[in-house]
Design a protein that fits this description.
5 helices; mainly alpha
Length: 136
């Protein structure tokens, strides 16, 4: 009876070892396939990077022409900037800030909403004035 039990245990253990060997072989085959695919992808990207500088190479004369075109563009931009003049941006003076005390809270809320400044509906007049002073 013990010989039969030991024989069956050896048979089961050898089956388990065979199964592990088969799994290991499958994993190594999949890793090999993955390494080959990755190597092919890396080689393709390497070739693409090597081809791009060759296509991008320009004779010196063409490069100088491109540089002169860039300079001409810059000159035209400078001329347009010099010709265009606009009115100065309006700035709030100290008097406007002092006048805030005389305004009502609804007027202050309207000013804040015109400027796009967020405020709370229940904010007091002093808080609204502080918001306007901080943003001016």
């Amino acid at each position: 009876m013990t010989i039969v039990v030991l024989a069956s245990l050896i048979f089961v253990l050898s089956g388990m070892v065979g199964y592990l060997y088969w799994q290991q072989t499958r994993i190594l085959q999949n890793l090999g396939s993955l390494a080959m695919a990755l190597g092919a992808h890396i080689e393709n990207t390497r070739q693409q990077h090597e081809e791009q500088p060759v296509e991008a190479e320009v004779p010196e004369v063409a490069a100088q022409e491109e540089e002169s075109d860039e300079e001409d563009d810059r000159v035209s931009v400078k001329e347009t900037v010099e010709l265009v003049e606009g009115p100065p941006a309006p700035k709030e003076s100290q008097d406007d800030i002092d006048d805030l005390q005389d305004k009502t809270s609804t007027q202050l809320r309207e000013l804040l909403s015109k400027k796009g400044i967020p405020f709370g509906k229940r904010d007091s007049k002093s808080v609204l004035i502080q918001l306007l002073k901080a943003t001016s």
